[in-house]
Amino acid sequence: MRFDETYSGNVFIKSHQNYEEAKAVLYGMPMDWTVSFRPGSRFGPARIREVSVGLEEYSPYLDRELDEVKFFDAGDIPLPFGNAQKALDEIEKFVKKVLADGKIPVGMGGEHLVTWPVVKAVYEKYPDIAVLHFDAHTDLRTDYEGEPLSHATPIRKIAELIGPGNVYSFGIRSGLKEEFEWAKENGMFIAKFEVLEPLKEVLPSLEGRNVYITTDIDVLDPAFAPGTGTVDCGGITSKELLASIHAIARSGVNVVGFDLVEVAPVLDHSEMTVNTASKLLREMILGWIK
């Protein structure tokens, strides 16, 4: 595995040119093999990079510039089309290398199943992690129509690996009754509909802990992010999600990795979603990479 050059031509704005000197590594996981409704998120990472050139490098929210953060854009991981298990194995191998080199993994999906192998790798290095999960959907199924490797299952797999009490979900507004019951019975935190206020209540209890953060773009209302595979009305505003990112940035948690998934450019005719995703990533990079 080489890190002296990126896998693909386009890079996120102001990414560092030297892997060895970088504090964090940005990478794409172009997989959407298991989606149950509308595919297209495998094109998300590349398009997010392309539109990032339109961003200002400075965040007025955080009073920080991208030049202040050394992050390397490794491009998209080459994944075997249609082979979910092999693709997940490749992602896990990649992230293990990044972690072994003492760097923070910053992922772009791709469907939400890609978060599962990343958390497996992070948990191996940081067995005390908590996971913060922003999403419209619970993603707590054991399978979807008999298939355990599904974008509807990653949070259940993660909860069973690290313990349900270490998983905190926010903005949830869809899921099977059984999923909500399983979460309640097993002590998993779920904030239905809202994000910012319940997040502020939880963050003090996580101060000093290693935290991985996964954000499904569909936590936003479709009015703010129509370009995603499974839209669900009743979501939060982009302003609230930005405020949540900043609340984490100003908290005492130690972010050891994060991702943003389910951006589908082919469904994003106004390009509102990819531009929103690009700005969200800028704020995450500036706020969470110290």
TrEMBL record:
Its cofactor is Mn(2+). Its EC number is 3.5.3.11. It is an enzyme of class 3 (hydrolase). SUPFAM superfamilies: Arginase/deacetylase. GO terms for biological process: putrescine biosynthetic process from arginine, via agmatine; spermidine biosynthetic process. Signal peptide: none annotated. It catalyses: agmatine + H2O = urea + putrescine. One of its GO terms (molecular function) is metal ion binding. Pathway: Amine and polyamine biosynthesis; putrescine biosynthesis via agmatine pathway; putrescine from agmatine: step 1/1. Belongs to the arginase family. Agmatinase subfamily. Catalyzes the formation of putrescine from agmatine. This is Agmatinase. It comes from Ureibacillus terrenus. The lineage of its organism: Bacteria, Bacillati, Bacillota, Bacilli, Bacillales. The gene is speB.
